[in-house]
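Database export, one record per block. Field names are fixed; values are copied verbatim from the stored entry.
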Amino acid sequence: MTKDFRFGVGLLPKDSRSAWQEAARRAEGFGFDVIHVPDHLGAPAPFPSLMSAAEVTTVRLGTFVLNAGFYKPALLARDVAALDVLSDGRFELGLGTGYVREEFEAAELPFPSAERRVGYLEHMTAYMQEHVTGVPIMIAGSGRRVLTIAAQRAHIIGIAAGRRAWTVTDPVGERVELVRRAAGDRFGDLELNLAIIGLPRDGTGVPNLSLARRYSPDLSEDELRKMPGVLTGTPREIADTLRMHRDTYGLTYFTVQEHHAESFSKVIAELR
């Protein structure tokens, strides 16, 4: 059975409660299914921000994604359970390893090796599965071990297929196949997500690459446009591309950032 599409939007910082809640209302009005908040120092604190959005919307709410290394499992489980109850069961917990050394240092936390951060993510995920059983878990990443953990434990898999591709031919397909093998019989129940980092914001069909360039500053414009998360064309052409992603890879959940929200709403309309 073909799965329905879902669409998420990451909200940017605002300078007041009213501005934040208005942004949440606009996101719902644009047709998005999930409001996301990241977990970076300098960005809004995830849990109070999502609770504020919950008060004025009916959409689902998620972290995209929490830095697992910032938290102790029991304390995070308490916050997750509270937000899930206070939002009437609309919360989805997104988890990642954390990767910005400067943020660990600013938080006065040691910056573990990649192996230890991935191990801690696995521990955190297992704890959440046991203690907040009703909350869907998303794990986002690109490495083999992270995607294997996600395939075996998460409900939603964020396929990060940027420039550190394992092959130059089909980075998304390669990662999806790894997830398929690691998930086994549960693969059909998983939801696969792709973050959109480039999208046209006018009628030219040419994608705005400012976000993609931030992630990969050393790539040429042509290389950036070839990244899996960069979409080109009219809203109808982009909708066709997303249908192709669903048919080819099983991707049905797509996330954009707020500055692309209005443009992407036209794509959502084509797919609904």
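Remark 1: The first strand starts at residue 6 and ends at 10.
Remark 2: The domain at 6-271 is CATH 3.20.20.30 (TIM Barrel).
End of record.
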